[in-house]
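Handoff note, outgoing to incoming analyst
You'll be picking up this chain. Sequence as last confirmed:
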Amino acid sequence: MKLFIALLSLSFSSQIFAYDLTHKFGIGAGVGIPVPAFGNQFNEAADAEMGASVYGRYHFNASTGFDLGVSQDEFKDTTMNFKNIDLLAFWRMAGAADYTPIFGLGAGVTSIKDYTPKDAKLSLYARGGAEFGIMPSLAIDALVDYQYVSKMMGDMPGGAAHVFIPKVTLTWYFGAASEKSELNKEMPKEEAKTVMAEEKNEQIVAQLSDEFRNEESATDAVSTAAAAPVRPTEDIMDMTIEFDSSNTEVNETYQEDLERLADQLRFNPETKAVIYGYADNTGPRELNAQLAKERAEAVREKLIELGVEEYQLDTNAYGAERPTATNGTVEGRQKNRHVFIGVIPYP
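Most recent structure output, in case you need it:
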């Protein structure tokens, strides 16, 4: 009982750490002292002795789950004992925390030894207590279960039985990954996006400071960069670049558009772009595939020269496959000699 009180107080006063048990399974065992309380002649004659239990556990999320267990409760001064099968749903009050109060409700079937004519009874359960995560895969619980053994499915001697069972259990968890660390808490997507953008702006500020020798110029440039807004991802537009026949050089007419795209990607470092290369069907298939690949690489290199990080850019080439226009006309073949830049916004 002292252990139970200590863990319960810790659950309210200790620092909260990430201990997410979502979709994890557990197997465990416990020992307790079943205490007959009131209600019938059995409770008056029997005395507390010892009980043991084993169970399987599953967590739907960080806060809720259920136990399926079997247990046996022994009593002094009587030959009767309880054999129980029960299903109990529980709620972890503090969710993904090392220390948390636990409450539960359930039902089961109790078989009573040396009682006739019918020894199978319906039982109802209530649970209170606390759990302490010793490590990500092991937890100790200090619990008190209340068991109500009804008169259903046969009469109890003198009425329903009421039993309180203080117990200590150990549970080993396995399945979905869980880390006992504050760093494992998932950062909200919008917050993560803001943090990444701020870090990128800090890098730009540092680069500008190094470039300016004059103190006044450096101060102005730093202030300008620090105040630069992070552009919304949805404002970054996909674009298409066409190439001359058998050519892989990016036409200078696209320079302004590429600079604009590069600027947007630089100020949205969490955003990526995939560069798809294409060709018309003129000439051998292998040559068209090579042209498409080189065109995609040429655009990628151009964006990197304009300050886009390499990790933000991926390439793919389809050659003459997946044409966007007919290859039966000069105009159609011209449209098929292109690179398409598809922007992948941060989720």
